[in-house]
Inverse folding.
């Protein structure tokens, strides 16, 4: 099949990678078929899932199941010929996997002649979500048989991958430009993750950045507080109740003008706004369009 990929197929793969991320799609081109592997990152479960092995004493709870790998083999006649699909999962029981494969086969047959890669991806996500999984007993599935793992060994692996998937979800939330407090992954649950857990997942450097952005956003909502413009400080500063545009940092004592963020200059006009101090990336991302234009001066 090398060199025989149609433009429609290339466009379909490009659309898929653009939609879910390049790191989640792998394409291997063979002589007679194209093998596409899609890593399906699952949505957090709205309720806790209990995963156990051998006996009830060896178990753990999670809201985030590890991803499922979707394997699609496409012939040179695709999409006129439906793809061959398979799934690989370290946690999925054999019976559930068989049901999922039946759903994928129905999707492929019902859409013969049309692109189905994204439909198959969506089918895997919705299938797991609609199963309403509350408990999984790890005994023997295709993955454990293939890798000759005992139930307790498989349970340990599932736990590690669940924690890794949960960390990925937190990282995605943390790196979003619209940073918000990291909360429980369950729907309609607003309890915040503890500081210890966040530091363990993100590391001290990312945690400090996360805390700084949350503080800045909180200060922006306060009418009488702003952030100290000193790069080495960036702590809360209080606005003067009697003098317009005057603010004083509560930590370093720096008096500055809230219009230009330089040393307070009384009735003298501001000299530009951002030109004499370094602007951080976080500060730029959180600034209004008007302030961004001023930063560029």
């Amino acid at each position: 099949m090398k060199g025989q990929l149609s433009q429609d197929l290339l466009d379909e793969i490009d659309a898929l990678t653009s939609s879910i991320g390049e790191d989640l799609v792998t394409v291997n081109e063979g002589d007679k078929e194209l093998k596409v592997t899609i890593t399906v990152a699952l949505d957090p479960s709205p309720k806790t899932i209990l995963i156990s092995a051998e006996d009830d004493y060896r178990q753990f709870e999670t809201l985030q199941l590890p991803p499922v790998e979707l394997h699609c083999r496409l012939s040179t006649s695709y999409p006129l010929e439906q793809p061959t699909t398979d799934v690989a999962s370290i946690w999925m029981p054999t019976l559930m996997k068989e049901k999922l494969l039946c759903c994928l086969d129905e999707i492929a047959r019902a859409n013969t002649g049309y692109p189905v890669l994204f439909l198959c991806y969506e089918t895997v996500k919705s299938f797991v979500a609609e199963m309403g999984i509350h408990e999984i007993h790890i005994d023997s599935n295709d993955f454990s048989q293939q890798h000759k793992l005992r139930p307790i060994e498989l349970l340990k692996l599932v736990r590690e991958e669940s924690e890794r998937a949960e960390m990925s979800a937190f990282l995605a939330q943390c790196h979003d430009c619209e940073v918000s407090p990291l909360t429980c992954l369950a729907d309609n649950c607003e309890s915040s993750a503890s500081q210890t857990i966040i530091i363990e997942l993100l590391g001290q450097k990312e945690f400090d950045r996360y805390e700084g952005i949350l503080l800045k956003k909180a200060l922006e909502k306060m009418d009488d507080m702003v952030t100290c413009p000193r790069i080495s400080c960036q702590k809360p500063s209080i606005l003067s109740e009697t003098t317009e545009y005057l603010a004083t940092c509560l930590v370093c004592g720096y008096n500055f003008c809230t219009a230009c963020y330089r040393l307070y200059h009384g009735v003298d006009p501001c000299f530009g706004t951002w030109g004499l101090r370094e602007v951080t990336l976080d500060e730029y991302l959180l600034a209004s369009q008007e302030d961004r234009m001023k930063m560029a001066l």
